[in-house]
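FIELD: query
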Amino acid sequence: MAIEDVSEMLKRELPALLRDDPDFRRYVLELTHREYAGRQQTEDRFDRVLEELRQDREAQELKWARQDRKWEEQNQKWWEAKEEDKSNRAEQDHKWREAKEEQDRKWREAKEEQDRKWEESQAEFQRVHEEIMAQSQKHDRHIGALGARWGVQSEAAFRNALAGILEKNFDIQVLNVNEYDDQGEVFDQPDQIELDIIIKNGLLLICELKSSVSKGDMYFFERKARFYERRHDRKADRLIVISPMIDKRAEKFAKELGIETYSDSLGVKKI
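FIELD: result
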């Protein structure tokens, strides 16, 4: 069977196989599992952080209980001493007040320190939680890229997802530009040219957001970018390609052309 026939058969059959065959779906996930953290790994890490926070809190509460008991015992001793020596009541009361004020001061300091550590722990927990959620979303985008590549979902939906992440994280707007190349500068024949652009603080960024990128895709992206520059008489400050599946030859070609490549929208250098 010719390679072209096999490719066409895969494009036709793969969506149904991914949907209906659990074994085949697991096989595809095993092929891509190195690209993201597994569900069990992220859940284990999440549970471990919660357990460490719980243990730290319980240890501190036990420490406070012991300190309360010591304070009560010391307080009892002070009161007994006061009863034994009536003549020194005023002096004993003075010492008792000083001791109590010192104890209260230490208690407040200890409480403030614990509150500070607890807030830091909560902040760390929130950071880990956001990291886990980011990994989960990255995993979903990789699966979405497979789906877009084989027709389970549209390429436009996947492009919109990547653009949405850029806009959320960098407070920008990704503009989709469609222009007609009537001279055939890009594809050697007249055709519609589609690009994503970002304009911020006077900078012009031209982007390609796709589920997968081949060397040919990279070549045509560079031609589309140069077409836009000539059409608008403006040089782009950065050329950016974002795709979870970029062919190795395409990455090498991109370096030669000065094009930045990223496997995920969250990895883009600050805009």
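FIELD: remark
Residues 139-153 have pLDDT under 50 and may be disordered.
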